[in-house]
Amino acid sequence: MRALAIDHSAPGGLAFAEVADPVPAPNQALVEVKAVSLNPGELLHLLPEGADGEVYGWDAAGVVVRAADDGSGPAVGTPVVTLRWTGAWARLRAVDTAWLGVAPDGADFGALATIPVAAGTALRVLRKMGSILGRRVLVTGATGAVGRYAVQLAHRAGAHVIAATRNVAANGPALKALGADEVVVTPAEIAGPVDAVLDHVGGETLVEAFAAMTGGGLLVSIGNTSATGEHFPFGALFADAATHDRRISSFIITGEGDLSADLGWLAHEVAAGRLDPGVGHRADWSRAPALVAAHAAGERLGKIVLDVS
């Protein structure tokens, strides 16, 4: 089958290659990939560090062409969103049915491809916060793929959403349109305590977000786009009656269990227009090497979606 494989001698570190078709395990469906979305972690780490010939890719949407032999999962012909740490950048991928969600017929595969890592992470992290109805929820890195979905989902759950972004003037109107009640540059600007935080920035932002939390608050770290460490000044972790039992938790989507129902629900919400997938740049997958090279050069392309032709 045709795939985009790592080739460090090629532009963007990717080149088309013919590779063996995947052989599904009994609990896996074979999916014909129609669209993929690219994640920063793939571009920052997998491409530079991967071996030539490897086929990576986490997020893909497509159609089941062989149902799982164990009877789990959807039938042949079903449109699906899929998640796995490898194999998305290819015509076919084998996916555990626990990490595959059924999408509605006629849905846009490009929009669906943005869901697994970004929307799945946002949904599961917000659930870990418990009921957020009427609570103050801070989302850092709010213009990223996870952040955009988190702002929308937290707003729909009844939270007072505070979005943090480096450029309020440029990004504030769009974030408020997605459901943000406040837009700030740093957590230090927030007036009043917050009840929960989804943090994707790390570094000083995480330290300030923790300081902004009220007692019983939960900060969930999903990454560190700042590429800097966290230094808590002396006394930052001391508690009084107002800050008792603040917690920091780590999260990765593939540490979760069965995602099929959540991925399917998210697919229907995106297809119905109730969630904005935030596609920044869309092109045929033949453009992938050039787009990856442009991203590495610092061009702001937003969420990149590739249609697999």
TrEMBL record:
SMART domains: PKS_ER (SM00829)
Entries under PANTHER family matching the protein: PROTEIN AST1-RELATED (PTHR43482)
Top-level taxon in the UniProt lineage: Bacteria
Pfam families per UniProt: ADH_N, ADH_zinc_N
GO MF entries: oxidoreductase activity
Enoyl reductase (ER) domain mapped to chain residues: 9-306
Matching InterPro entries: ADH-like_C, ADH-like_N, ER, GroES-like_sf, Lipid_raft_assoc_Zn_ADH, NAD(P)-bd_dom_sf
Organism: Phytomonospora endophytica
Name this protein carries in UniProt: NADPH:quinone reductase-like Zn-dependent oxidoreductase
